[in-house]
């Protein structure tokens, strides 16, 4: 019987530790002013992107989505954002733009991330990994085209198993919708990145985010 490859790492072994579920508070926020300093020069770096469009077109004429935000189901079963590891000597922004071409076939002649689009960076000393997070704001017409193009990406069907939108509304039991979504498994610090972006871009109020986080326990 030929090997299915299951329950092995193969060549992925060299980076499998990066994808291990983080311990509580493993990732700490580092100031944007420090992300290029010597302290992190020996670390592994990755950069991911929060692609979003304002969207107030109500779902079922009831729920205001407020924004359409793209995330993806990854090959490892976790939700995450498009992006990836920065190659040796590669500029952070060049890397995230490269990864978005690879993973969602983004036309970077039309839409590309620049240094000013930095949202937040996190560092895991344990993993020797620094995770940078950038935003890319588009309009809904462009977001729909980006979604259409994503299935033609080089990594679609391998690294990326699907592009999704994040449900930001909460249903009548105060649980279904965004709170349920926050209960899914996220890679790296991507849940923290989602919350940081929603807050810093004023997409949801801190109170709405806290309500969604508190509703996780189904004690509504
Ligand atoms: O969306 C994300 N936000 C934060 N960290 C992430 C995200 N996606 C992956 N990571 C972390 O960064 C590492 C490298 O990212 P990724 O798996 O996307 O690299 P690749 O696309 O170059 O293969 C992952 O192992 C994981 O720890
Ligand atoms: Mn990569
Ligand atoms: Mn990739
Ligand atoms: Mn990736």
Q: What's the quick description here?
A:
By secondary structure, this protein is α+β, with helices and mostly antiparallel strands.
List low-confidence stretches.
none
Question: Number of helical runs?
Answer: 5
Query: Architecture of the domain at 25-169, CATH level 2?
Result: Alpha-Beta Complex
SSE order: EEEEEHEEHEHHH
Distance between the termini: 50 Å
Q: Tell me the fraction of residues in β-strands, as a range.
A: 15-25%
Q: Provide the gyration radius in Å.
A: 18 Å
| Arithmetic mean of pLDDT | 96
Q: What does the main sheet amount to? A: 8 strands, mixed
Secondary structure: number of strands = 8
Pfam families: Nudt16-like
Family: Belongs to the Nudix hydrolase family. NUDT16 subfamily.
EC number: 3.6.1.64
Keywords: Hydrolase, Nucleotide metabolism, Nucleus, RNA-binding
Summarize the helices and strands and which ones pair or pack.
Blueprint: E1 27-30, E2 44-55, E3 66-74, E4 79-80, E5 83-85, H1 92-104, E6 118-124, E7 129-137, H2 140-150, E8 160-165, H3 178-182, H4 190-200, H5 206-214
Parallel strand pairs: 2-7
Antiparallel strand pairs: 1-6, 2-3, 2-5, 3-4, 3-8, 6-7
The site of inosine-5'-diphosphate has 17 residues, from strand 2, strand 5 and helix 4.
